[in-house]
Structure formats: structure tokens, C-alpha cells
Amino acid sequence: MRENLNVGVVGVGMIGQDHIRRLTKVLPGSAVVAVADADPERARRVAEDVAGARALPTGQDVIRDDAVDAVVVTSWGDTHEEYVLAAIAAGKSVFCEKPLATTQEACLRILDAEMAHGKRLVQVGFMRRYDAAYRALKEVVSSGAIGTPLLMHSAHRNASVPGHYTSDMAINDTAVHDVDIARWLLDDEVAAISVLVPRRNRRAGDLRDPIFILLEMAGGALVDVEVSVNIAYGYDIRGEIVGETGVAGLAESNTVVVKREGSFSGRMPEDWRERFVRAFDAELQEWLIAAAKGTATGPSVWDGYAATAACDAALAALRDGTRKTISLRERPSFYARP
Ligand code: ISE
């Protein structure tokens, strides 16, 4: 097992730089030794700020570099397949930010490659599974305290989104988290999906915002997902599960309530980096531990495939307004439930 893991980072935008910060300043056991980005000048600037890191021309160069033991893929979603496949071919553990890939066909190519390799190498960045509040919610549901889950309500609210954000990203870059967390909390697969679009938020420009997604789980539970990406007041993640004998839901994420002048208030996170900062730390710490042993744990390629398959169906439902059924490949024992 490697004592100190040399990590290569492919894609040094917002999340890539945040992961470099946690790998070099927060978590023990690793060093960032190589970075690359579609913008070479940005890669050069980022490398300058990381002791011992080199900016290389391409993501492939980072993955192939002999000094790199393991790879973090934080590039554009459309490029994830190329880089994850290259890491598997190089036999290097890889942390891939969500989505695993932007189509289910691409996810299946990764799945076939990892199975051919013979052991897990890929962890997918579904960080909500490492969030203390979601872990507490799963504990309540798994304990049977509220009976069999019947419904789940999920709301995913961004205060705003960057200019490059598209209506499709509301599903395959944003709602993909809600799909994965519903699968994880309910321990079930999505069997069918419908998408409705209410009147547009006037702050949304050309984006279809908000959107309403209905997941029909294979076991019979229903999950409704609200995706609002111009909600203005803050970054607000809601989750509640309705069981036969009770309900369990995420509490407000603020740690302090201020009461003064006849009112009370609490702080809203600005964005996902603030709301899930501890969860991001925990997921990367788990990855480092497994990568030091030359493997991967946590959210798997199967989880990435199942979430993207649901998002593919949601995009199709968004386009023609009809309900879509989802039929996944039979789950291989290689990806058996833990
Ligand atoms: C972003 O990529 C994330 O993963 C965040 O968790 C999500 O809230 C945001 O909407 C996405 O764009």
C-alpha cells in the first residue's frame, strides 16, 4: 500500500481546484503532482500554486505520467468517459466527479472496461452519500422507524448558475444527485420517469427553470424532484421520506438561528461547495484510502450508470413530454450491493 499517493488532476475548473485544495491542504496522504485542463494557461496558473505540481499539455499526459499513481477527473462531463477509460487502461485508481459520463452507453463502456480489468478502480463523486444529514436520514429509513418508504420529496435549489449552464444540465449535472440519493436512500432502482415544466422563473433567461421530475421506483415508491437553479435566496437542498408510519426529513442546514427584533433567521449556504464541504472531504478521504491499495470503494460505476440511465430517460421525457421506462442491464455480481 502506498504511504503517500501522487495524484494527477484532469480539469482544474471550480470543483477541480476545490479538490486540489482539499488534497493538498486538508486531507493527509497525497500530493498533487500533475494537472491538465482544456485551458492550458489555467492549468499553468493552478500548477504554479501547488508545490511540486507540473502542468501537462493534456489529460492523457497526466494519466500516463509515471509520477502519477491515481487520477482525479474533474473535467467537463462529456470528457469523463475518455479519461476514466484511460485511467482504467493504465491500471490507476480514479475518482470521477459526477456524472460518470453523459450517456448510458458511455457508462456501459466504462463498466465493461472496469470488469475486464478485474477489480474496482473507479469511485464516482456522489458526495451526498457522505453528508452527515443524509447519512442520518438513511439510518432512520434503514432502521424501519417510519415503516416502508412510500414517497420521497427532493428539492435541489441553486441560487443561480453560471452562463454556460444549459437546461439539459438541470438534469444530467444537477438532478443526477437527486437520482443517486433516491437510489441510495431507498436501496432501489428507477423504473420509469416523467418530467413536467411549470411556468418559467423570470430570472431564468432561456433556461427551463424550474423543472419537476417524477421517479417511479421499481419497488413502488414515488420520488418527486424539484430542480430550481435561479432561486436567488441561497443553495437549498431538501429531502423528506414519507413512510407507512412516519416521515423523516433533512433539517435546515444552518448551525445557528438568530432571534432578534421579533424575527428569527439562519444562514443559507451560497453554493454546493459550502453546503457539502465536509461530504466532499469525506468522499475524497475514502477514495485516497482505497486508491493507496490500488482499488476503489464508495459509489461505483454501476451507480454512475444507473443514475445516467435515469437522466437519459428524463432528458427524453423533457423533450417529448411522455413517461419513459428504464431498463438497466442485469446488475453483475462484480457490482453486488454492499
Ligand atoms: C454542480 O455541478 C453540482 O454538482 C452541485 O452539487 C449542484 O447543486 C449544481 O447544480 C451542479 O451544477
Fold and architecture overview:
This protein has ten helices and 15 strands. By secondary structure, it is of the alpha/beta class. The strands form three sheets. A seven-stranded mixed sheet has the order 12-11-7-10-9-8-15, with helices on one face. A hairpin with a 2-residue loop joins strand 13 and strand 14. Helix 4 (80-89) packs parallel to helix 5 (104-117), helix 5 (104-117) runs antiparallel to helix 10 and helix 6 (132-143) packs across helix 7. The mean pLDDT is 97. Bound molecules: (2R,3S,4s,5R,6S)-2,3,4,5,6-pentahydroxycyclohexanone. The site of (2R,3S,4s,5R,6S)-2,3,4,5,6-pentahydroxycyclohexanone (ISE) has 5 residues, from helix 7.
In a nutshell, what does this entry contain?
Helix content is 36%, strand content 23%. It is of the alpha/beta class and 338 residues long.
Low-confidence stretches: none
Distance between the termini: 23 Å
Number-wise, the strands total: 15
Strand/helix succession: EHEHEHEHEHEHEHEEEEEEEHHHE
Biggest sheet descriptor: 7 strands, mixed
Heteromolecules bound: (2R,3S,4s,5R,6S)-2,3,4,5,6-pentahydroxycyclohexanone
Overall pLDDT, averaged? Answer: 97
Q: What best-fitting shape do the alpha-carbon axes yield?
A: globular
Rounded to an integer, what's the Rg over CA atoms?
20 Å
Assign the structural class, choosing from mainly alpha, mainly beta, alpha/beta, alpha+beta, or little secondary structure: alpha/beta
In terms of DSSP E residues, the strand content is: 15-25%
Query: What spatial order of strands do you see in the largest sheet?
Result: 12-11-7-10-9-8-15
State the helicity in percent bands. Answer: 25-40%
Please count the helical segments: 10
Quaternary structure annotation: single chain
